[in-house]
Design brief:
The structure is a single chain. The chain is an alpha/beta fold. It has 7 helices and 13 strands. The protein has a single domain, classed as Spore Coat Polysaccharide Biosynthesis Protein SpsA, Chain A.
Length: 313
């Protein structure tokens, strides 16, 4: 069986969750968190390794809540995304920085532990079973073209909105061949009945609710680490020391590569309903959805019991 790795970005501060660590909030009938279901779906699809990107100060809690349990069923590795994990020549320049560097740096942290095609996901997003199956099939059948190859799981905008506040999504343009042509990071998209709207300065922009969007579910190969490395150095060089909020973001990186025609991105479509814990208020609705999936037989009540289909590694 071909190998592929799942990379889970879990180093976020979780400020909108109200002070808790949102990625570790229980939502399942036996205390499972959203990551449990993503890992279960990924392993079922064929992924044979999981890499957690966390902050060092989260390590103890993280392992107690999920890591120690998951390592019984699949190979696990940890990498640590830290503010000072930047080239030495930039450390004095950004000594006052307190905000994380973003998803591009998070993936770059994995370069020493990932040597197979890999899928990147957010820790606090539920993607659905089909998304992992599509990604695994693509990543394990890539021809050796010598070029950077990327795929993105595209979700339908209306299926990715929160009932409790605005969200950020990468709005995508896709050509007739299913290739990504443009991605526009769009902030504060709100759900308004069946509409998706952006409100700013008393102005309202209505978006096409059927638009494909990026949910930071990217399929990449190890060759992409060199792109991230050189790009991060250029990003740090041009970023002002006073710009304490600038982030090296994966959608922006890939968008710029698209503009420069340096990469082609295959969009794998998913009609699955997204859910996640963006806001503290989301947790109750997520718990209800998980319960309905368990009741419908999509997931066993005891996710990693021997009778649920998971096997010890």
């Amino acid at each position: 069986m071909s190998r592929a790795t799942l990379v889970i970005m879990a180093a976020g501060i979780g400020s909108r969750f109200g002070g808790g660590i949102k990625q570790l909030a229980p939502v399942g009938p036996n205390g499972e968190i959203i990551m449990d279901y993503s890992i279960y779906d990924a392993v079922e699809a064929g992924f044979d390794k999981v890499v957690f990107v966390i902050r060092k100060d989260l390590e103890k809690d993280f392992k107690e809540v999920i890591g120690n349990r998951i390592e019984k069923y699949v190979e696990v590795a940890y990498v640590y995304q830290e503010l000072d994990d930047i080239p030495e020549k930039y450390k004095e320049k950004f000594s006052g920085r307190i905000k994380p560097w973003g998803t591009g740096q998070a993936i770059l942290c994995c370069s020493e532990v990932v040597d197979t095609p890999f899928l990147v996901i957010n820790a606090d997003d539920y993607y659905g079973k089909n998304a992992f199956k599509e990604a695994y099939a693509y990543l394990t059948s890539l021809p050796d073209t010598g070029k950077i190859q990327v795929c993105m799981i595209g979700f339908v905008l209306k299926n990715t909105l929160s009932d409790n506040g605005g969200v950020t999504r990468g709005l995508c343009q896709v050509d007739d061949a299913g290739m990504l042509t443009e991605i526009i990071e769009t902030h504060n998209i709100e759900k308004d009945g069946i509409r998706a709207v952006v409100r700013q300065d008393a102005e309202e922009t209505v978006l096409d609710a059927e638009t494909p969007v990026s949910m930071n579910m990217w399929g990449l190969t190890p060759a992409f680490f060199e792109v991230l490395k050189s790009g991060f150095d250029a990003f740090l060089e041009k970023t002002s020391a006073q710009d304490l909020k600038a982030e090296y973001l994966l959608p922006t990186i890939i968008g710029e590569l698209l503009e420069e025609k340096k990469v082609r991105v295959k969009v794998l479509k998913s009609e699955d309903q997204w859910f996640g814990v963006t806001y503290k208020e989301d947790r109750k609705s997520v718990m209800n959805v998980v319960r309905s999936l368990v009741d419908a037989g999509v997931y066993p009540a005891e996710l990693y019991s021997s009778s649920a289909g998971a096997e010890d590694k």
